[in-house]
From TrEMBL:
This is Predicted metal-binding protein. Pfam families: DUF2284 (PF10050). The lineage of its organism: Bacteria, Bacillati, Bacillota, Clostridia, Eubacteriales. InterPro entries: DUF2284_metal-binding. It comes from Clostridium cadaveris.
Length: 184
């Protein structure tokens, strides 16, 4: 399966554009780790797929760069405003569903070791980290782009995607990192 076929399939799953690049084109910014440390989302130290458990900036960057390719994708939906928690949750839920479908597609067709980073891991209603138990779904657990310090706005620009956060629509972004011998 070549890059164009992969982009087409991921676009079909998401209902939006998808763009495949070399991981050498990923834009990392360690400042995003600061946002995690400030616990803006409430998950710092409470989720195995979030800092500090996921690793340092250098560790996650090196983990990502072990892959050859990244396919950047998004899920967009309408909101009334940024206080529209109901629709924001619906868009995020749809995005997480898309991320799961993309992971399945890659594992079945391209690369079983895919690393899919999207929005925070939400397979469990409460992460096992809270009770110091092992992760219940290590094969499905997913980190967010911020935890990997991937600069979403710069990647969206690089891919030619609209970075929608205008108060009327909202986009969630994801990136599937993979290796593929015949992707060219």
């Amino acid at each position: 399966m070549n890059i164009y076929e992969i982009e087409k399939k991921v676009s079909e799953i998401c209902g939006t554009n998808a763009k495949c690049l070399s991981t050498k084109e990923l834009v990392f910014n360690p400042v995003f780790r600061k946002y995690c440390e400030e616990n803006k989302c409430g998950m710092y130290g409470r989720n195995y797929m979030c800092p500090p458990d996921i690793g340092t900036f250098e560790e996650v960057k090196q983990r990502a760069l072990k892959y050859e390719y990244v396919i950047f994708y998004s899920t967009t939906g309408a909101i009334r405003d940024f206080d529209d928690k109901e629709n924001i949750k619906l868009i995020e839920s749809r995005h997480n569903g898309n991320a799961e479908k993309i992971t399945e597609f890659f594992r079945e067709n391209i690369d079983k070791t895919i690393l899919n980073v999207a929005s925070k891991c939400s397979y469990c209603s409460e992460c096992s980290k809270i009770t110091n138990s092992p992760c219940k779904h290590p094969d499905k657990a997913r980190a967010c782009l911020s935890a990997y310090c991937i600069d979403v706005s710069k990647m969206a620009e690089k891919c030619g995607f609209e970075f929608k956060s205008d108060g009327k629509s909202l986009s969630f972004f994801g990136a599937a990192l993979f290796c593929c011998d015949d992707a060219i």
